[in-house]
Design goal:
This protein is of the alpha/beta class and 564 residues long. The chain is 40% helix and 17% strand. The strands form 4 sheets. Strands 8, 9, 10, 11, 12, 13, 14, 15, 16, 19 and 20 form an 11-stranded mixed beta sheet that branches. Helix 2 (40-49) packs across helix 3, helix 5 (117-123) runs parallel beside helix 6 and helix 17 runs antiparallel to helix 21. The relative contact order is 0.10.
Length: 564
C-alpha cells in the first residue's frame, strides 16, 4: 500500500512532483508525466478494469511500470496479491520503493536487474493453481524500448511454462506409473551420480538424431577411439547401421515407442552398451537391454537447479523422486533438462567431466525438409504410409508444414527452418554454454554439419577439433563403475507403497476424495490426480471414471512390485 504521509512530504520537497486535477500527485520525469496530470485515480481504475471478474487467488499479475503505485494499490484492494512489479527508471524506482510497501507475495524487479530475473520468478509459479497471467502497463512509466526485453522474456517464459504444465498434465499419469514400475530395475542399476566428476577434461561427443547426422557418421567412425561417446536413444539405429558403438546411450522418453529405438539391433551390439535411463523412461527399456548386456547400467533423474528472487538456489524435481531419494538416503543423479533427451545428455556429459563437449547431429532445424535422420525409429514409423505417389520425404514435409515455423540463423545457410519447440532447445543450449564457459571453463563445440547456429559454441568440423587435443588417455573403466542400489531399502519402499495402496483401496470417489489424498501427505499423489482436482475445483466437474481408472492403474503398478 502507498504510504500517503511520506508521499505528501516528498511531494512538498521534490519539484518532480506535480499536483493533478483530482487532488492526487503525479511525477514529471524528463518532460513526461508518469501518471495522468488530470486524474491518476481514474487512470488506475482503467488499468485494473480488465482484471475485474477474475479470481484473484488464481491470477498472477505482471506490472510494467511502477510509478507511484496507484494502480498497484487498486490491484491489492481488488485482492490481487500475486505478481511482479517491474520498473526500469532509476528515479521512479527510488521514489516508489520509498513510498510503497509491496506485500511479500509480490516480487520486485528494479532497474539494476535484467530480464533474466524473471526466470527465477516464473520457476516458482505453480500453474496448477493459476488460471490467468495478466499484464498491466503504466504507459507514462513505460519508456519505449526499455521494456522490450522484459516483454519478450515474459512471452517466452509464459509459453514455456504453459508448455511444461500442459506436458505434465498429459504425462503425469504415465510418469508416476513408470517410476513405480522402474523400482524393480533399481537393484540392477547404479545411480548416475556415482560417475559425476570422477574424471576431468574427458572429450565427450554427444550424438543426436538430427537430419544431418548421416553426413557425420564417417567422421564419427574415424574419431571413435579418441573420444567418449554418448548417444541419445533415437540415434542408436543409425549408429548401429554405421557400425559405431557409443560408450553410453541415454533414454528419457516415457512413451512406449522408445523401445523401437532398440528393436532390430542384434544382441552382440547391445551387449557392448551401457544404458542410462531416467526414472520416467519406459520400464521395459532396461529389461530389454540388460538381457543382452551385463552393464553396468545407470539410473538418473530429471531435475532443474534454479535461483529464487532472493538469490538462493533450489532444486526442482518430481515429487516422487524427492520422496524416493529420502527413503533411499541416496541421490540417484540429478540431470538438468531443457526439454529434450539431447539437453539431458549435454548436462550429464558435463557432470561426468566432459571438456570439450562436442555436439553432432544437433540440427535443431528441419534440415533437408525432414525431422530426423533416416533409419531412426521415427523414419520407420512413417515408412509404411509411403507409396509411389506419396513418398516419405513428402510425409515429413507435410509434418513440418503443420508446425509454427520460425527462421533461425544457420550453420551453412543464412537462415534455416525451425519451430517454437526447437528454438526453446536452442535457447537452453546457448544459456548453458555461456554458464559452462564463464564459470567452469568448459569448451562447447557444435560439430553438427547443418542446422541452426548456436551462440556460445564454436562451430568446427569434429576431426579438426580433435586434432587439437592429445589422444584419448582416460581410463574408460573408471567411467563405468558398478554400484547397484541395495535391496533392503527397496523392500522398505515397497512396503510404504503397499500401505498407500491399502489406503487407496478403501477410498470412495466422492467430493471428499481430493481432501483425503491431501491428508495422506504425499505430494506425488496430489500431482497424480492434478488434472481431476483442477476440473473439480474450477468447474465442479468430478471425473469419476478417470479417478477410478487412474487409481486402478496405480494399485496394479504397486502390486507388480510384489510379483518379483
Amino acid at each position: 500500500m502507498i504510504r500517503y504521509p511520506l508521499l505528501r512530504r516528498l511531494a512538498e520537497e521534490n519539484p518532480a512532483f506535480v499536483s493533478a486535477k483530482d487532488g492526487l500527485v503525479t511525477l514529471r520525469i524528463q518532460d513526461r508525466f508518469v501518471h495522468s496530470p488530470y486524474s491518476p485515480g481514474k487512470e488506475a481504475l482503467r488499468l485494473v478494469e480488465g482484471l475485474r471478474g477474475l479470481d484473484p487467488s488464481k491470477t498472477f499479475v505482471i506490472v510494467l511500470g511502477a510509478g507511484l503505485g496507484y494502480h498497484i494499490e487498486l490491484l491489492e484492494k481488488e485482492g490481487f496479491e500475486r505478481g511482479v512489479v517491474i520498473e526500469t527508471n532509476p528515479e521512479i524506482a527510488r521514489i516508489f520503493q520509498q513510498i510503497y510497501e509491496l506485500p511479500s507475495s509480490f516480487y520486485w524487479v528494479g532497474p539494476e536487474q535484467t530480464e533474466e530475473a524473471l526466470d527465477s520468478i516464473f520457476a516458482l509459479l505453480d500453474f496448477s493453481s493459476l488460471r490467468w497471467v495478466k499484464t498491466v502497463i503504466l504507459r507514462g512509466s513505460y519508456e519505449i524500448g526499455h521494456y522490450d526485453a522484459f516483454e519478450k522474456r515474459i512471452q517466452r517464459l509464459t509459453q514455456v511454462k504453459l508448455g511444461d504444465f500442459s506436458t505434465r498434465l498429459k504425462f503425469e499419469e504415465i510418469w508416476l506409473i513408470h517410476m513405480i514400475r522402474n523400482l524393480r530395475n533399481l537393484r540392477f542399476s547404479t545411480p548416475l551420480a556415482k560417475l559425476f566428476f570422477r574424471q576431468q577434461n574427458v572429450p565427450i561427443v554427444i550424438v543426436s538424431a538430427g537430419p544431418s547426422l548421416r553426413q557425420s557418421l564417417a567422421a564419427l567412425s574415424r574419431v571413435r577411439s579418441s573420444v567418449f561417446m554418448v548417444a541419445v536413444d533415437t540415434a542408436l539405429l543409425p549408429l548401429y547401421e554405421a557400425g559405431i558403438v557409443p560408450d553410453m546411450v541415454y533414454s528419457l522418453d516415457a512413451q512406449v515407442h522408445t523401445l523401437e529405438d532398440f528393436l532390430g539391433i542384434d544382441r552382440k551390439y547391445l551387449s557392448r552398451l551401457h544404458l542410462v535411463y531416467d526414472m520416467v523412461a519406459h520400464p521395459e527399456t532396461l529389461a530389454f537391454v540388460k538381457e543382452a548386456s551385463s552393464g553396468p547400467h545407470y539410473v538418473a533423474t530429471t531435475a532443474h537447479v534454479d535461483i529464487d528472487p532472493q538469490g538462493n538456489p533450489f532444486l526442482l524435481k518430481h515429487e516422487f523422486v524427492r520422496w524416493l531419494e529420502l527413503e533411499l538416503n541416496t541421490p540417484l543423479g540429478d540431470v538438468e533438462t531443457g526439454g529434450s533427451v539431447s539437453t539431458s545428455v549435454f548436462h550429464a556429459s558435463f557432470l561426468m567431466g566432459g571438456n570439450p563437449l562436442l555436439l553432432v547431429g544437433q540440427d535443431l532445424a528441419f534440415s533437408y525438409q525432414t525431422t530426423h535422420v533416416a533409419s531412426t525409429s521415427h523414419y520407420y514409423r512413417y515408412f509404411p504410409q509411403a507409396h509411389r505417389l506419396h513418398p516419405i520425404n513428402t510425409i515429413f514435409f507435410e509434418a513440418i508444414l503443420s508446425r509454427r515455423l520460425q527462421k533461425q540463423p544457420g550453420i551453412r545457410e543464412k537462415e534455416v527452418d525451425s519451430d517454437f519447440v526447437l528454438s526453446n532447445f536452442k535457447g537452453w543450449f546457448e544459456v548453458s554454454a555461456k554458464r559452462l564457459s564463464e564459470f567452469r571453463g568448459i569448451r562447447c563445440i557444435n560439430a553438427t554439419r547443418d542446422g541452426v547456429r548456436l551462440d556460445g559454441f564454436l562451430h568446427e568440423d569434429i576431426e579438426d577439433v580433435l586434432k587439437k587435443f592429445p589422444p584419448f588417455s582416460h581410463d574408460r573403466e573408471k567411467l563405468f563403475v558398478s554400484d547397484p542400489l541395495p535391496v533392503a531399502p527397496l523392500h522398505k519402499i515397497q512396503k510404504r507403497l503397499e500401505a498407500l495402496k491399502k489406503e487407496l483401496q478403501g477410498y470412495v470417489f466422492d467430493d471428499g476424495f481430493f481432501e483425503k489424498i491431501r491428508d495422506l501427505g504425499q505430494e506425488f499423489l496430489e500431482r497424480y490426480y492434478m488434472r481431476e482436482r483442477m476440473l473439480f475445483e474450477r468447474y465442479g466437474n468430478r471425473d469419476t471414471i478417470s479417478l477410478e481408472r487412474k487409481t486402478y492403474r496405480l494399485i496394479k503398478a504397486i502390486e507388480e512390485l510384489g510379483d518379483e
